[in-house]
Amino acid sequence: MGETTPGARWQNWARTASSRPVRVEHPRDVAELAACVATAAEQGLTVRAVGAGHSFTAAAATDGVLLSLDAVDAIEQVQRRPDGTTLVTVGAGIRLAALNGALAALGLALRNLGDIDRQSIAGAISTGTHGTGARLGGLATQVVAARLVTAAGEVVETSPTHEPELFELARLGLGSAGVLAAVTLETVPAFLLRAVEEPWPLDAVLEQLDGPDGLVDGNEHFEFYWFPHTRRALTKRNNRVDSGRGLNPLRRWVDDELLSNTVFEATNRLATAVPAVTRRLNAVAARSLSARTYVAPSPQVFASPRRVVFREMEYAVPRAAVRDVLAEVDRWVESSGERLPFPAEIRFAAADDLWLSTAHGRETAYLAVHQYWRLPHERYFSAVERIVAEHDGRPHWGKLHGLDAERLAQLYPRFADAQRVRAQADPTGVFDNPYLTRVFGPRT
Ligand SMILES: Cc1cc2nc3c(=O)[nH]c(=O)nc-3n(C[C@H](O)[C@H](O)[C@H](O)COP(=O)(O)OP(=O)(O)OC[C@H]3O[C@@H](n4cnc5c(N)ncnc54)[C@H](O)[C@@H]3O)c2cc1C
């Protein structure tokens, strides 16, 4: 499997997808990439690009040609602008950790990031990967131009003013309209964040969520983890500062490696072997997490190592619905008898106008539910999916879900436009696979 998902530890889709590529190609530049696509299309083979293979859906799976863009990872251009932002053009295969390092060397950073940095920039934007922050959008909102190789093997520069419709699917479209060769990101000067992580009673979190000084609007980045079977939460508030004390390396190792990975793996194994102890384990975990405050460069605060393997489903709901959704999920958990040793994660984002963004047109709250990979996830995820359906929940494109094009068309006002542009850009289905056919609908 190593070759199918180069560099990936998770291989979630590879475990479940039945399709296997007949050929894996490693183009080194856009010319080789265009030739790979053109040759595959001539041979009647389908093509998918893969980043780090960290998606939980089989979005990158193919039984044709799999393109790994790991070697297409160089910073190409840096344009400093009078408003303090800087446009950075970079090869689409670069991993976020490497991108963060390269930007830091230039004194720059991305405005917002998710909670790991293993993904490629192309894979992350293509699935709508996001972090948290009520005034901030996901990674794709930071893209101002994209170089795309189309199904015909042509190289097209896209932006809001050049091929704007193609740009929509280039910056967030699951690779349905072409393979990204490079993206131009709007970056900001590097910044420090003060991270305040505290265990709170869940009810206090829910009471203080809203209002101008509430947890969501009163912090640049606010999120919380809720431990099922308890009324406890771990809150995280990250805000910009000019200076401050970093975390002692030993404390960081104890929290982020020992407790969050080694001990957490052990408690999940225990919960798998003896489900009846799950409630007690969660209560202990939620209470034993000690508060910590530290200051660090933004990428170090956003991302942390996540080594315990799990399945994940995440839904975007209107922000105003988040309390009701959590209450309904809690009721289902208590009445179902299901045992859930993994916390749920709740994040926030600003409304945006990207056609396929999960935050399109509405202030958004995200509910991510997880299950340890050795435990069944289907019943829990189906129940959550039924609950969020009542609130027009939109699924993360890279995480498990059961929706199809018919339902997605009701959830996204510009869905028909996305289907039209996909059909125009790839009339013969060079970039098709079963996952894309499910979410965009069969070709007519
Ligand atoms: C531990 C973990 C933590 C995560 N944390 C977050 C989080 O905080 N926030 C969040 O929103 N998501 C999160 N995710 C989900 C993850 O960000 C997405 O699934 C993302 O797509 C993974 O990036 P990748 O490089 O592995 O892409 P892949 O899984 O390899 O590919 C994803 C999609 O992008 C397409 N693609 C890849 N490269 C290209 C290209 N060059 N051109 C066109 N299309 C391309 C693929 O074909 C596929 O459709 C997490 C996942 C894991 C496993």
TrEMBL record:
Recorded GO MF terms? D-arabinono-1,4-lactone oxidase activity; FAD binding; L-gulono-1,4-lactone dehydrogenase activity
Identify the taxonomic lineage of the organism of origin. Answer: Bacteria, Bacillati, Actinomycetota, Actinomycetes, Micrococcales
Q: Which NCBIfam families match?
A: bact_FAD_ox
Q: Name one GO cellular component term.
A: membrane
Protein's organism? Cellulomonas persica
Kindly give the PANTHER family that the UniProt entry links to this protein: D-ARABINONO-1,4-LACTONE OXIDASE, L-GULONOLACTONE OXIDASE
Instruction: Indicate the segments forming the FAD-binding PCMH-type domain, all copies.
Output: 17-190
Q: Where are the transmembrane segments?
A: none
InterPro entries on file: ALO_C, FAD-bd_PCMH, FAD-bd_PCMH-like_sf, FAD-bd_PCMH_sub1, FAD-bd_PCMH_sub2, FAD_lactone_oxidase-like, Oxid_FAD_bind_N, Vanillyl_alc_oxidase_C-sub2
Pfam short name (any one):
ALO
Keyword Secreted assigned: no
What is this protein called in UniProt? L-gulonolactone oxidase
Q: Which UniProt keywords apply?
A: Oxidoreductase
